[in-house]
Write a structure and sequence with these properties.
The complex is a heterodimer of chains A (293) and B (162). By secondary structure, chain A is of the alpha+beta class. Chain A has helices at residues 14-23, 37-42, 78-83, 85-90, 92-97, 104-109, 112-118, 124-131, 149-152, 227-233, 240-253, 264-292; strands at residues 7-9, 28-31, 50-53, 63-66, 69-73, 135-140, 143-148, 153-155, 158-159, 166-173, 178-186, 196-205, 208-217. Chain A folds into 3 domains: 7-53, Uridine Diphospho-n-acetylenolpyruvylglucosamine Reductase, domain 2, CATH 3.30.43.10; 63-173, Uridine Diphospho-n-acetylenolpyruvylglucosamine Reductase, domain 3; 178-287, CO dehydrogenase flavoprotein, C-terminal domain (Enolase-like, domain 1), CATH 3.30.390.50. Chain A is built from 12 helices and 13 strands. In chain B, strands 2-1-5-3-4 form a 5-stranded mixed beta sheet, covered by helices on one side. In chain B, α2 (85-92) packs across α5 and α3 (102-115) packs across α5 (139-161).
Chain lengths: 293, 162
């Protein structure tokens, strides 16, 4: 399979990339890791006139804590996030999700910014970032915007990113108190899209839940934030009954369709089981962290 | 577009269409046909090559993206007509049947052993999890990687004591 013809530019600055993008924004695609875009080009589901390759722009793979956030550069590769020691110590939901994305070869190229901008409801990062209340930083001709992830994700393959904008960073609030998190993914085999994925993040004050974040993958037209379940958890003490209730509410928020990966009722049941399991795991991690300090 | 790529240690220049996939440039233009196109849909790993030492699927990278980089294919493993220890190990342990996935398997093995000279069985299975083999059931591939790891480690030890 061959993509249709396109012009290609690989600028070494973001300003230059934005200028090229701005010339014919509706006919141009931004190339990051390319692990979703190039397959789409080959299938000719996408046939842009121009491709702007941002891989040669320095600094877009930043990964550091500053001003109360973890800054993740748009070009951070899945494997970079899976292997990073700061992420491993402080961001368990990210550390748990990264090695479950696609397969090792795709993870060497695929990026967090590209994945989010692709807007696939079966993408894993959307759920993780919903659970963590992340913001997406985008740059366009008129400057920079910070978009809460829940507003960034709109619908299937649709985000609130404008045609002339580029995702530059993802900002994840630093966790407070004792925290824990996990990403649980059901897949038929390595490299397949999720049948169901569940992201969980908990911050505890003693045994009281100071903050609970959840995100659901592949059970709707975009990654779902089950706010009723989050609200039921917040301010309450950890208990199996509470977790069961939150899991029930999360399953209610899921809107899966029956397909080759399973019937909708099955997927909803998996959401319920995984939310319960993920909350227990996050709680145990948080308690272990509290015990260490 | 003009590109300069070091392919198997050899500086190589070419004028390629931006839409040309790396695998097609390697196979059809450079006639390096050891790298196989399996699924053509980013699923199977048969087309795996190393770009600056990192294993990637060459059916999902444009040749122009490799501009200025180093690409290694299976043809780059053997030296002076001598099989590379990874190739010798796949032969010895019968780590292939039809051989179609083998180039990809050997390239991920090369990348794995560069980072981890003593991988566990789990490390090996994890490393090859993006590469599909329809024949072997993977058992002999894992054995081949284990043998190659031991062989390379022993060679390195010899080199340091010599």
């Amino acid at each position: 399979m061959f993509p249709s013809r396109f012009d290609y530019s690989a600028p070494d600055s973001l300003d230059e990339a934005l200028a090229t993008l701005g010339q014919r924004a509706d006919e141009t695609k931004v190339l990051a890791g390319g692990q979703s875009l190039i397959p789409l080009l080959k299938l000719r589901f996408a046939a842009p006139a121009t491709l702007v390759d941002i891989n040669r722009i320095p600094g877009l793979d930043v990964l550091e804590e500053s001003n109360g956030h973890l800054r993740i550069g748009t070009l951070a590769r899945h494997n970079q996030l899976a292997a990073d020691s700061l992420v491993g110590r402080r961001y368990p939901t990210i550390a748990s999700a990264a090695p479950q994305i696609a397969d090792p070869l795709v993870r060497n190229l695929g990026t967090i910014g590209g994945s989010l901008a692709h807007g696939d409801p079966a993408g894993d990062w959307g759920s993780v970032m919903l659970a963590l209340n992340a913001e997406v930083v985008v740059r366009g001709p008129t400057g920079e915007r910070r978009i809460p992830i829940d507003d960034f994700l709109v619908d299937i393959f649709t985000t609130s990113l404008n045609e002339d904008e580029i995702v530059t960073e993802v900002l994840v609030p630093q966790p407070e108190g004792s925290f824990g998190g996990a990403y649980l993914k059901l897949e038929r085999k390595v490299g397949d899209f999720a049948t169901v994925g569940v992201a969980v993040h908990l911050e505890l004050d003693g045994d009281t839940i100071a903050r609970a974040g959840l995100g659901l993958t592949a059970v709707g037209s975009r990654n779902i934030k089950p706010t009723n379940a989050e609200n039921a958890l917040g301010g309450n003490k950890c208990s199996d009954e509470l977790f069961a209730e939150a899991a029930r509410l999360a399953a209610e928020a899921a809107d899966p369709v029956s397909d080759v990966r399973g019937p909708a009722t099955y997927k909803r049941a998996v959401v319920e089981a995984y939310v319960k399991r993920g909350l227990a795991e996050a709680r145990d991690q948080a308690r272990a962290r509290a015990g260490r300090t | 577009m003009d590109i300069n790529v070091t392919v198997n240690s050899k500086p190589t220049s070419a004028d390629v269409e931006p839409r040309r996939l790396l695998v097609h440039w390697l196979r059809d233009d450079l006639r390096l046909t050891a790298t196989h196109v399996g699924c053509d849909t980013t699923s199977c790993g048969a087309c795996t090559v190393l770009v600056d030492g990192t294993p990637i699927k060459s059916c999902t990278l444009l040749a122009v993206q490799a501009n200025g980089r180093e690409v290694t294919t299976v043809e780059g493993l053997a030296t002076n007509g001598q099989l590379h220890p990874i190739q010798a190990a796949f032969k010895e342990e019968h780590g292939l049947q039809c051989g179609f996935c083998t180039p990809g398997m050997m390239m991920v093995t090369a990348a794995l052993l560069e980072k981890n000279e003593d991988p566990s069985e789990e490390d090996i299975r994890w490393a090859i999890s993006g590469n599909i083999c329809r024949c072997t059931g993977y058992q002999n591939i894992v054995k081949s990687v284990e043998l190659a790891a031991g062989q390379i480690k022993a060679e390195r030890a010899d080199a340091t004591t010599a």
